Amino acid sequence: PAANLLKRETPQFIADAFTDFGKWMDGWETRRKRTAGHDWCVVQLGVPGRIHGVDVDTSFFTGNHSPCVSIQATCLDDPPTFSLEGDRTGMAASGTQLAAVAKLGSEAWPELVGVSELKPGYTDCCHNYFKVDFNHRVTHLRLNMHPDGGISRLRVYGVGQRDWSSDSTHQDVDLVALTNGGVCLGYSDAHFGHPRNMIGLGRAANMADGWETARRLDRPKELKVDQRGILQVPGEEWAVFRLGRPGVVSSVEVDTNHFKGNFPDSCRVEACTLTPEDEVRCVGTRWRSGTWQMLLPPQKLRPHHRHLYGEAVLAPPRAVSHVRLIIAPDGGVSRLRLWGRPVPITAAPTNQQPDTQQSAGRSFIEAAGD
């Protein structure tokens, strides 16, 4: 079924797996088309936003991959609700489903990717990447096969974009959340997990769903602590985020969920306000420049614990656009939340496509499965 396109796991191939309708494939495979037209499906993104790239993965479809695809998109702020009819493997969409989808007019949606050739599902060519230049918020996609065949996974990359027009400036929101447009712009180490995971949906499913660094090799042979019990170590790791919208942070959440023997000893959070030009310069210097001010002073952390810090320990309130989480000496954090009120700031950076590979956006569709 087409729902396989959205699976978080990488595709697998089981040689002796068959169904009543033929070979079982870990993806979306349509029947050999014997009628007019082509096959297609409509996908609702897990996170609305601006799309910068797409990966159409044909893994293991080597004699039956779709020869070509195209992708269309739209923004539906009040989409209709569809009733799921269960597993329909081996069957076409029902008349009820087709009638419901027809109301969307998806065949007329703007085009993100024109009709483009796909490579077969061999390891060295199964990932078919397409750059997207579409400067509009997207909530839904239409994936078109031309004319039929198989696709294993669909990954859509970009930056989340919240509709702030209906939000009150007196209501606290998570300013750094992926769903609200937060972006990871840089980091010191991501050996076991990327720091962008920390701004994902909900609590982390496991350690892989968080940020974890390698063990630092400069840690002392014998560890010492200060009067607060915080380790005195020479090294630290960091990750920088642009907020989805500049705002005044009123509380910070640092969650070490699942990190039991590998949590950081301590953390602190710094913040600043940057223009787009400032941001480009800081990215170019790997964040060695920039005027950072303390938001959350160093705090001792506990394993597998949700740490909440309010105004009693935070610096006096001020509007910020970027934050830097610093952990010492190393370890893992599953989630970072920055609760506060969005505010307008003149010339504040917009969440355009990041200018570094370090900040590659998490898949919008993948986020839907959290």
TrEMBL record:
GO terms for molecular function: allantoicase activity. Residues 348-361 have a biased composition (Polar residues). SUPFAM superfamilies: Galactose-binding domain-like (SSF49785). Residues 345-370 are annotated as: Disordered. GO terms for biological process: allantoin catabolic process. Residues 2-159, 181-342 form the Allantoicase domain. InterPro entries: Allantoicase, Allantoicase_dom, Galactose-bd-like_sf. NCBIfam families: allantoicase (TIGR02961). PANTHER family: ALLANTOICASE (PTHR12045), INACTIVE ALLANTOICASE-RELATED (PTHR12045:SF3). Belongs to the allantoicase family. This is Allantoate amidinohydrolase. It comes from Scophthalmus maximus.
